[in-house]
Amino acid sequence: MTGLRERKKDQTRQRIAAVALRLFTERGFDAVTVNEIAEAAEVAKATLFAYFPSKEALALHGVAGDDLAGIVTQRPAEQTFLEALRAHHHALATGEMPAAGLDALIARVRVIQDSPALQQAATGLLYRQREALAHVLTEEYGPTAAALMAAQIAASLLTVQETYFHRLIGGASAKAAGRALAKDVDLAFDLLEHGLLHAEGK
């Protein structure tokens, strides 16, 4: 019964997100209201907010990055925190994405690019993820080192993600963009693990 309930909740979440994306794509993020999304998705406004705390969260669904702090705290004991983060993002890069998912991702990225408000929301989310990661690293490394490491990790992953999005919007196939993303993930974590001097010139 619990499994069925969770599947229904996930279906509702995905339906709301899909309807919101369609409206954002057609009219732009700023022109669409939460009431319109709820009506089009055939759910109560309170139900919508139970799944997504804000209109910005709806628009950023699927592209808002990962719980970096959670990945670090839940890693196996034998893994370093950088190994855990590398493995997670490498798995994402090499995973298969269905065509419908790719189309939705590209549409969502374009919606974000067209809205300064959404870009600001994405920046705020990244900052909170960075702060959470710094918090879990502080006990072992101290506050200053933890803050510096978290900032470098977050900036590196943001650059890798933005490069991936640019490739997709530029017309690269999902496979080609995924292969390039996997290489970028490895390069980013090589630099994080070994320092800037690890980079090889062209």
Describe this structure in words.
This protein is mainly alpha-helical and 202 residues long. It has two domains: 1-61, Homeodomain-like (Arc Repressor Mutant, subunit A), CATH 1.10.10; 63-201, Tetracycline Repressor, domain 2 (Orthogonal Bundle). Helix content is 77%, strand content 0%. It is built from ten helices and no strands. It has helices spanning 2-27, 34-41, 45-51, 55-59, 68-73, 81-94, 99-113, 116-141, 143-169, 174-194. The model has no long low-confidence stretch (mean pLDDT 90).
Overall geometry comes to globular
Major sheet size, sense and barrel closure: none
Summarize the helix and strand pattern as letters.
HHHHHHHHHH
How many separate structural domains?
2
Any guess at the CATH architecture of the largest domain? Orthogonal Bundle
Q: How many angstroms separate the termini? A: 57 Å
The overall pLDDT average reads 90
Rg over CA atoms, rounded to whole Å, is 19 Å
> What is the structural class?
mainly alpha
Number of contiguous helices:
10
CATH class label of the largest domain: Mainly Alpha
- Unreliable stretches (pLDDT < 50, length at least 5) are none
Please state the oligomeric state of the protein chains shown.
Answer: single chain
Share in helix: over 70%
